[in-house]
Design goal:
single chain; mainly alpha; 4 helices; 81% helix
Amino acid sequence: MAHLHITAWVLAVILVFIVSAFYGQEKTKQGKILHMILRLDYLLILYSGGSLLGTYIANGVSGGMLGEVIVKVIAGLWAIVAMEMIGVKTKKSKPVKSWWIQFAIAAIIAIGLGFGRLPLGILP
């Protein structure tokens, strides 16, 4: 399930850049189509992330890592919200710099915990 989760969020990151570029170039039809695909990808991220969370809870998070799992879940949800707001604000031609910064922070926290600390990541 970790591979599905990683594939889904890599696709989401690529799509958020493309959606932002399309909206920035005022190609609203293409941007809207890809934005809807991005929203479907959010569902895949939430499903696979929920499954990973269930695996952590079912196996009993060892070494007091429950707090880190909860922080990773919150950071992941924060990253999804930031990606959505980047798309919406870009479409409305409003400033998005703060949302890009929030997305970067949330993604660094989630990826750092997922690969660096928690045992279900794909790295040793």
